[in-house]
Design goal:
Blueprint (H helix, E strand, L loop, with lengths): L20 E2 L4 H15 L3 E5 L4 E5 L5 H11 L9 E4 L2 H8 L7 H10 L4 E6 L2 H11 L7 E2 L2 E6 L3 H10 L2 E6 L2 H10 L9 E5 L10 E5 L6 E4 L5 H8 L1 E7 L5 H13 L9 E7 L10 H10 L21 H5 L3 E4 L2 H10 L7 E3 L15 H24 L14 H7 L5
């Protein structure tokens, strides 16, 4: 019983405790699905590949964790924690946890931006919501949750995803070698109860790297409990909202806007999406300090200077606008219409994510060369504009300048190219 290789005829083998079934989208999967519901109904164990490792899965019932723990013990896995609810799509998660107030803004963003893919989410739910979510998902308490924290993963493997969609989700643990686990479990099946054990095979094999585990408490923020197939930097880039302020020289308006925005995002409501602010100038080679009048204006408003990046002698200095800076920003605020035109010339794709900082559509006048009082007036105006824009951002009302809601396949592409670390 070897692993099926590419170009092998794709068909569903006969259901047998000793013979694997094919797990490929389409007709073969449909045939497999004819048998899988019966397996889960009879409290069996299903072993199938995901994009990370192999899953050992079962239906949720009062004895599911006992079955999975017996499999762990048999395979030498010392983990005794809860399993993870595996589903085939983001919609499957939102159907049970997408009601008003169930997920915090950052939790919802993590679901939409990290799933489907090689990430396990640990979502802390309010006690008043936990019971309803478990009931809607058909999960026994304690099976995929530890206290108020629920383990969820939407797989990106096409065959496994279709299987899970057909079955409405399963609870699962991971193993590095599915066929070996299958053989071991078949040889000692008396230790696993009386339900059947079935192995699904597919041409798309696991990468061998476990999923990255991201914990999202209700108070806000996120914590990476385990780095796996997705790096911490990739999680950061997907979960956080990156906002770029753009002006001409990056010494007056945009660095003041950066500092003011950084101060304001510190006061966002608990559970809000983390916002990362930076700034750049269209006509600068970089390396210039913020103007003294701008520094004085920020001091007048009680705004601390923003740490504008860079290291050593370049820390706190101006930065030129580059295609890389635009590409790494989900929302771009320009001070004037001319800056918007320059952004479009530099990167046409970024134009859809760019808009004027002033919600009224007016330019922010350049105080360059003026007295401090003029800078203070500009800073106060910028502060009001940023407050309005942050309200729009947190409410999801910014329109085309906002980040797309759903995962764009970044992780799947990274894994396919081997850049999954």
């Amino acid at each position: 019983m070897g692993i099926n290789r590419p170009n092998r005829p794709q068909h569903a083998m006969n259901v047998s405790s000793d013979t694997p079934m094919r797990l490929d989208p389409g007709a073969a999967l449909a045939a497999a699905l004819q048998h899988a519901p019966g397996l889960t109904a009879r409290a069996g164990l299903l072993i199938f590949p995901t994009e990370t490792v192999w899953a050992i899965a079962t239906r949720s019932d009062a004895f599911a964790l006992t079955r999975l723990q017996a499999a762990r013990t048999l395979l030498g896995d010392a983990n005794t924690g809860p399993a993870t609810w595996h589903v085939g799509s983001v919609d499957a998660i939102l159907r049970v946890a997408g009601g008003p107030g169930v997920l915090t803004p950052i939790q919802r963003r993590a679901v939409q931006r990290l799933c489907p893919g090689p990430v396990t989410l640990r979502l802390e739910l309010a006690p008043e919501h936990l019971e309803g979510v478990l009931s809607s998902a058909g999960l026994e308490p304690g099976l995929a949750n530890e206290g108020a924290t629920l383990n969820i993963r939407a797989v990106a493997h096409a065959g496994a995803g279709a299987l899970l969609l057909g079955l409405g989700g399963l609870v699962a643990i991971g193993t590095g070698d599915g066929p070996r686990a299958f053989r071991t479990m078949i040889a000692a099946r008396h230790q696993l109860g009386h339900g059947p054990i079935e192995l699904f095979e597919a041409d798309a094999l696991p990468s061998g790297r476990f999923s990255t585990v991201v914990r999202l408490p209700r108070r806000g923020g996120f914590f990476i409990d385990r780095v796996g197939a997705v790096s911490a930097q990739q999680v950061e880039s997907r979960v956080c909202l990156r906002v770029l302020m753009v002006c001409t020289g990056n010494t007056c308006r945009s660095p003041m806007a950066e500092a003011i925005a950084r101060a304001q995002v510190e006061h966002l409501a608990p559970g809000s999406v983390p916002v990362r602010i930076s700034s750049a100038g269209i006509h600068t080679a970089g390396g210039e300090p913020m103007s003294g009048q701008a520094v004085a204006a920020l001091a007048e408003l009680g705004v601390p200077l923003a740490p504008r990046g860079g290291v050593g002698a370049r820390a706190g200095l101006s930065h030129p606008l580059t295609p890389e800076a635009l590409d790494g920003s989900q929302v771009i605020f320009a001070m004037t219409s001319e800056h918007l035109r320059q952004i479009e010339r530099l990167d046409p794709a970024a134009a859809a994510r760019a808009t004027l900082l002033d919600p009224s559509g007016d330019d922010v006048p350049d105080p360059f060369g003026s007295e401090v009082a003029s800078y203070v007036r500009t800073a106060r105006a910028i502060s009001s504009m940023i407050a309005a824009r942050l309200t729009q951002l947190t409410a999801g009302e910014l329109g085309s300048a906002g980040i797309p809601a759903r995962n764009d396949g970044y992780f799947q592409g990274a894994i396919a190219n081997g850049a999954n670390g």
